[in-house]
Amino acid sequence: SQTIHQWPATLVQPVGSPLSLECTVEGTSNPNLYWYRQAAGRGLQLLFYSVGIGQISSEVPQNLSASRPQDRQFILSSKKLLLSDSGFYLCAWSVAGGFNSPLHFGNGTRLTVT
Amino acid sequence: AQSVTQLGSHVSVSEGALVLLRCNYSSSVPPYLFWYVQYPNQGLQLLLKYTSAATLVKGINGFEAEFKKSETSFHLTKPSAHMSDAAEYFCASYGGGYQKVTFGTGTKLQVIP
Question: Is B51 on the interface with A (CB under 8 A)?
Answer without folding.
Answer: yes
